């Protein structure tokens, strides 16, 4: 029997599923895990550990194991994507107008739009000492873990759940799967139609294990003085990415890699993004373009 | 002559009294206004049991500004913790959005999930 726990955290829908012969009590603990992670990693909480770290940019600060692990994940994502995923884009996001949780963001905030030519530092500019778990952000730089935190949370939740049975953890669309269901079947994953706010499914993909994530500019969009904005910042310009992709779904060995690659593909655009997916046997993906066209990577057939 | 200077002294005395009285009056007036404002603020703060209201204020802050406000009371964060609801899931990929899903066995092909762009 598959047992499911759905709840809200990090401003998104979350769910955890376990395939087990009897009710797995551990499922009831999952919301508390996310609460703990959100308290450490959210930039929207004034008393989160991340907020404290951002306030102390330029000074060394000892951090929790949670924040330390997510920073390591961010550094791996930056390497995997050649710098296209970089959580030091917080100031660029704020300049673009993403200055509060999206649920509260007004469609056209009265704050004046500022032309922002970013000089976004690399994660390599962060001083980090593993022996003391101490981090020192470059002065004036601020972190926003965003999707990295969701991918990491999905993976971490799945790791904790898998002892109770085959498990799936979904953190706002970033999904981690531990293995096939008890009967050996794959887990069906519906890919939402980015043109439909009702969550209609345009494709069902079947995964045995690993990660799948979607990144897109379909939902997190707003206007700033008549200029359309979205939350996917291109670190090369510091501005919302100019791309022909509306949403990209990527399958990868882990949810963290899937999340990072999905974002990198959106930023890169369809031509470069699809070539990147086709060039790596561990990756597969589905791109939905602004014009409605769908592009599939070569490996996607294994999952259909 | 003496009478004239006496009456001028009286006038000076009256002007001084009026000035002192006016000063005291204005002092009292503005002082009570401040008390009223403080009282109103205190009431507003107490009538915010919704933990989200604290977050809404915090959301507007830029890094570096947050220190001015100090930390959010811990109880508000505890109140924001999601409530666990566990039920038998399954039934394909219609998850998300709360509410219970129909029960399904793992052999029924259900128990899937959905991926999208972090829709709240």
Question: How would you sum up this structure, described in words?
Answer:
The complex is a heterodimer of chains A (304) and B (120). With 304 residues, chain A is an alpha+beta fold. Chain A contains 7 helices and 17 strands. Chain A has an 8-stranded antiparallel sheet with strand order 1-2-6-7-10-15-16-17. A 3-stranded antiparallel sheet of chain A has the order 3-5-4, with no helix packed on it. Chain A has a two-stranded antiparallel ribbon with strand order 8-9. In chain A, a hairpin with a 2-residue loop joins strand 6 (167-171) and strand 7. In chain A, helix 3 crosses helix 6 (255-268), helix 5 packs antiparallel against helix 6 (255-268) and helix 6 packs antiparallel against helix 7. The radius of gyration of chain A is 19 Å and the shape is globular. Residues 105-117 of chain A have low confidence and may be disordered. Chain B is built from 3 helices and 2 strands, in the order H-H-H-E-E. Chain B has helices at 2-46, 51-59, 74-79, and strands at 86-88, 113-115. The longest helix of chain B has 45 residues, at 2-46. Helices cover 50% and strands 5% of the residues of chain B.
What's a concise summary of this model?
Chain A contains seven helices and 17 strands. By secondary structure, chain A is an alpha+beta fold.
Work out the count of structural domains of chain A: 1
Q: Could you give me the name of the CATH homologous superfamily of chain A?
A: ApbE-like domains
Structural class of chain A: alpha+beta
- Estimate the mean pLDDT confidence of chain A: 89
- Biggest interface pair, counts: A-B, 77 and 52 residues
Shape label of chain A: globular
**Overall strand count of chain B:** 2
Major beta sheet, strand line-up of chain A: 1-2-6-7-10-15-16-17
Low-pLDDT stretches of chain A: 105-117
Order of helices and strands of chain B: HHHEE
- CATH C-level label of chain A: Alpha Beta
Largest sheet of chain A: 8 strands, antiparallel
In whole angstroms, the N-to-C terminal distance of chain A is 24 Å
